[in-house]
Design goal:
2 domains, 413 residues, alpha/beta
Length: 413
């Protein structure tokens, strides 16, 4: 048993002062330090810095790690320009996937307070690195197969990858499936993947409505994707509409990433089906996307989280950096209230979306926690703390997963 008594505790619902947490692999109790010490006299008392803010570990629900090694080959500013740069550089990118860079990316996430990730694996080249890392993860095995002649062969290769991932399953690695997007996966494959997800209880992820080009293609088989398919396949034919695509996921609550070009009726359908959204504001900006209408999501009861995407469309996997961008982007919200909402969108909300027993400091939850050094900052109102944590990039100096310290910094702010 361990006891930790920071100055502040963000439970996920409220900020407590001068309280303590008793924990093992899971959180046992939250009470005053004296009461917990009396209740657990043989417990180990962990040292904390004087002005410490404790909260649940951050959950990054959508991150690509395989391309962590290249950052300048991509063309930013438009989605299609970026996509074409990936295709142009694909052979070099795929052949030079770096285990060292993936390890560094994961370590950076641990050091900035992320304890759980939704890793989108396109090739399975990150499996072993993910397996050996202490970070907790849902590994979304992503399928891409857009043309009828590709369906069977690419599905078989994907299925082999899923089975390889299944062999790595443990308490810190959970296999899952991902359908890349409605324009890159044939409905036949979508049907097979969703059927598997239902049978095996897999979580499902998919990119959806990330670009204006995607919107035009699904609506009217026009725009930049028409030119793209003509150039690459000699034929430009969509195999699904947005409505048909969403209907494919009935009975399987899915995390749709981006959603910046969603129509109101699609948000309504997502609400009815129990889907959620992963919001990646930096990626949307770099790829020329619009602002996610979180107000519409909130109104219709569709949950949204904050995620970073990968280094192919971001410069940082630090969740606090992403929260800061979101704070600036969604400027119609009360800034202090929205800062608190962003903390929840990085903990409570994704934990619920991914059906995790974490995301809160609460008895019975897994002991995934982070300690943040508030330094010499003083607050006349504790409600200000989330805003300043996000704005000032205050130091995460300890990361705890399943009750074990997986990162601890000796540096002080």
């Amino acid at each position: 048993m361990k006891l930790i008594a920071p100055k502040y505790i963000f439970t996920g619902d409220e900020i407590l002062e001068e309280m303590a947490v008793a924990f093992e692999k899971q959180i046992i109790a939250i009470d005053s330090f004296d009461n917990l010490r009396e209740r657990f006299p043989d417990s180990e008392v962990l040292e904390v810095r004087e002005n410490t803010f404790l909260m649940a570990g951050l959950i990054n629900s959508h991150v690509h790690l395989e391309y962590s090694h290249h950052t300048t080959e991509y063309d930013y500013g438009t989605y299609m320009g970026w996509l074409k740069s990936i295709i142009r550089n694909f052979q070099n990118l795929a052949q030079s996937v770096s285990t060292e860079k993936i390890e560094r990316a994961i370590q950076d996430m641990l050091e900035s307070g992320t304890t759980y990730i939704g890793a989108i694996s396109s090739m399975g080249l990150d499996f072993e690195t993910l397996k050996s890392s202490p970070i907790r993860k849902t590994v979304f095995n992503e399928v891409i197969a857009s043309q009828p002649h590709q369906v069977d062969d690419l599905y078989k290769l994907w299925l082999q990858r899923v089975e390889s991932c299944e062999e790595l399953r443990d308490e810190r690695l959970t296999p899952a499936v991902a359908i890349h997007s409605p324009f890159s996966v044939h409905p036949v494959v979508i049907k097979r993947v969703v059927k598997m997800a239902k049978e095996r209880g897999y979580q499902v992820s998919s990119h959806f409505m990330e670009s204006k080009a995607e919107r035009e293609w699904l609506d009217s088989e026009s725009g930049e994707f028409r030119d793209f398919y003509l150039e690459n396949y000699g034929v430009a034919k969509r195999f699904t509409t947005a409505e048909e695509f969403l209907a494919s996921f009935r009975g399987v609550p899915t995390l749709f990433t981006h959603g910046v070009y969603l129509h109101s009726d699609e948000v309504e359908a997502m609400s009815q089906y129990g889907h959620g959204v992963s919001h990646c504001p930096v990626s949307n900006r770099l790829l020329g996307g619009d602002r996610l209408n979180i107000e519409n999501l909130d109104q219709k009861g569709v949950s949204w989280n904050i995620s970073t995407d990968g280094f192919s469309s971001n410069i940082s996997l630090n969740m606090f950096d992403e929260m800061k961008t979101a704070l600036y982007l969604h400027n119609s919200h009360n800034i202090e209230e929205f800062a608190l909402e962003l903390l929840k969108a990085s903990t409570v909300v994704p934990a619920e979306q991914l059906q995790l027993n974490s995301g809160k400091i609460e008895a019975g939850k897994d002991s995934d926690m982070i300690l943040i050094d508030l330094g010499n900052f003083e607050f006349d109102s504790k409600e200000k703390i989330p805003l300043h944590i996000i704005l000032r990039g205050l130091q995460v100096y300890q990361t705890i997963i399943f009750g074990r310290t997986e990162f601890q910094s000796l540096k002080t702010t």
